[in-house]
Specification:
single chain, about 240 residues, alpha/beta, binds adenosine-5'-diphosphate, binds magnesium ion, ABC_transporter-like_ATP-bd
Length: about 240
Amino acid sequence: MIRVRNLHKKFGDVNVLRGIDLHVKKNEVVVLIGPSGSGKSTLLRCLNFLEEVQEGEIWLNDGLVNPRKDNLNEVRQHLGMVFQQFHLFPHKTALENIMEAPVYVKKQARQEAEQWARELLDQVGLSDKANAYPSQLSGGQKQRVAIARALAMKPDALLFDEPTSALDPELVNEVLQVMKELADQGMTMIVVTHEMGFAREVADKVVVMDHGRLVEQGTPEQVFNSPRKERTKKFLQQVL
Ligand code: ADP
Ligand code: MG
């Protein structure tokens, strides 16, 4: 579904991604881990063409994306994104936040978009919060609305960038639970997270990043129980 080949990204003189090769199959959950500053967020942003890259190829659904020729707004609809800081529109209700892209980007009829938004709210366990504004929601509820909003465009895959890192500890599980349900339903996902329990339980593949490179990848069991690389061992000692 997603194939990255030899991706290089620099900010000025700083090499942030140094030749990334990554495959994500349909229905697969890939958890991306690694030290702060290793390039995880940059990689997700490149996948969604929020960053221009110096070199490399990104293939989506067997098509090579050409950022100079293709309509990137259309390309971005294939990948939904969920951020650490939710990024909800503060002056819109939960329902309106979810309806926004279908109505304004896809030009879907309001009534149809609203019905779909209510289904999504139900899916993330927030049917009763349709008319609540973000300021009236807990962090966990906000993130669940953000997930529903990402799903509203019917993406082929979801990219999560530390979706629970801004949450109070007691709110982490409600978000992980929604993510786990999505995984069980076959949603293709790339998840940057420090939640190693989630990685162990849900990931098909764990990918370890360090200094702009993928240093190791394998099943959770391989990576957590018998890491091959020194850098993986070091990182795991710090987070486990
Ligand atoms: P991670 O998500 O793994 O913590 P990031 O992808 O956020 O890492 O950052 C990787 C490196 O790129 C860091 O050294 C960071 O300072 C740098 N970086 C990220 N975004 C920018 C930017 N917009 N301009 C300059 N440097 C950046
Ligand atoms: Mg990051």
